[in-house]
Here is the input.
Amino acid sequence: MASAETLDVGAEMRCVMRTLMDGEYEAFPPHDLLRSVWRLVPSFAGNEQQDAHEFMRFLLDRLRKELSSGKHAGSQTNGLKGGLSPTSPKTPQGKCEQDDGVTGDKIMEIFGGVAVTTVTCMKCERSSERREPFMDLSLPIPPVVGKNGSIEEGEGPNGEATLQQCLAAFVRNETLSGHGRYFCDGCGKVQSATKSTRIAKLPPVLCLHLKRFTWKGHAMRTKLTHDVDFPLDDLDLAPYCETNGEAMYDLVAVVTHHGLNAGSGHYTACAREFTAEGNSDWQHFNDDDVNSLTAEEVRTGQGYIFLYARK
Ligand SMILES: [Zn+2]
Here is the structure.
């Protein structure tokens, strides 16, 4: 039996991609891939419901590790590259781009962005900045009420929050006070401060994850079941960026969680297929059921993970 270090998740992933591309099966169970992951992360094993976001992050981190080790050097033209790398990387446009040091890393070249957090002392106004690469952004769902309420008004068609409001909540300035104060080098002591976050570099494929689940230790406890409206086309990221520039994205896939709480329920995914004529069709992946669905149907349901591709 292979040791954890010699397990080849990339090869299993490649096998899944090839089987999908062959088109022989409408659906098939990726047991070998799953078993490899279970061996590497025993807490994923079994039939308990797991967090799709945590699983995806593990998978991407593992693929990064394997690719950087040279494990797949001989297979780049043999399936994995076709499945996992952008075949025609889009040239970054606009100013919302800065050198980030993530080049040469295939996974980061696709999903990697950079966020910048600025903390400003409320006493002397000295600022400090921290830039951090990200593979996805975890967004809060802002509490919203109806039109006459005192909290933020939901901007969705039925008064629900929108993904744009979640992004706005992510970049909203917050005050660090009380136990959250920080040490200001300018003042030489602990001070209250304001903290702001912006996106400094956008990736070709932006992964957005909604903080639907609250945790207690390793156990998921509750789920925010609020609907969040999201655009299929023309999500404009410019308002959340450090600098101005074109930053339009279209949705290519969404993972939805069905169920009232975190301990049970079911995940399904919708993915977009672009046609040669420039149109697109949506497919719904629900275990071994794969069905077409309309754009409107994609927007119903409680989206959990969103993948947006740069236009
Ligand atoms: Zn200060």
User: Anything to note?
Assistant: The pocket of zinc ion is lined by residues 121, 123-124, 126, 184, 186-187, 191 (CB under 6 Å).
